[in-house]
Amino acid sequence: MKICICPGSFDPVTYGHIDIIQRAAELFDHVYVAVLKNPEKQSFFTIDERLEMLHVSVKAMANVSVESFDGLVVEYARKKGALAIVRGLRAVSDFEYEFKLAAMNRNLAPDIETVFMMTSSQFSFLSSSAVKEVASFGGDVSQWVSPEVAQRLYAKYQINERGRRD
Ligand code: ADP
After folding, report:
1. Into how many domains does the chain fold?
2. Is 138:165 a contact under the CB 8 Å cutoff?
């Protein structure tokens, strides 16, 4: 059985993430979407909120599970019996960071491969932080996140149905 993990913060999950998860699910027998529980990194949504939004987003994908993890990604991958860590690449700007991360992980665990997937062109400028910024001003985020995620974003930013802060 070929298993991979898709690790990330997913703060919150976007259609860019879903696209990568869906494509990974076509290549691997099972995909573990692994949400990083990092007390050091301030997140906008709590770990439980991020997990709930992901659960809803992947519920139609039979070979995808969602879990949280802390500690080293390679250790989590090993625990799951994964042979690969799948990461998405958007612009050249992602490359340097991802290159370093992949090199570190390769040093720590030479048996676990990092696999990069190019973003689909319509998502190449999409990031969780950009979505949060637009939502905070009451902008329309429906082309980037599910209605469920959009609703949670507006609720957190106290944006009402007229697109204004209460
Ligand atoms: P991290 O904090 O680990 O970068 P993210 O939640 O931002 O976590 O991203 C998780 C993974 O999803 C990363 O591999 C990232 O490159 C990828 N990703 C995020 N947005 C997109 C997108 N629009 N297109 C393709 N991949 C993406």
Report:
1. 1
2. yes
- Catalytic residue, chosen from 17, 30, 87, 132, is 17
**Domain housing 29:** 3-124
Ligand 1 atom 8 nearest Cα: 8
What is the arithmetic mean of pLDDT over 97-113?
A: 97
Active site residue 2: no
116 DSSP β-pair partners: 87
Residue 155 belongs to a domain:
no
Which of 33, 119, 120 is the pocket-test mutation for ligand 1 (most atoms within 8 Å of CB)?
119
Ligand 1 atom closest to Cα of residue 36: 3
Catalytic-residue membership of 59 = no
Q: What is the pLDDT of residues 107-160, one digit of tens each?
A: 999 999 999 999 999 999 999 999 999 999 999 999 999 999 999 999 999 877
Please give the Cα distance from 156 to 146 (Å, whole number): 16
Helix, strand or coil, per DSSP, at residue 74:
helix
Q: Which residues contact 52 (CB under 8 A, 6 or more apart)?
A: none
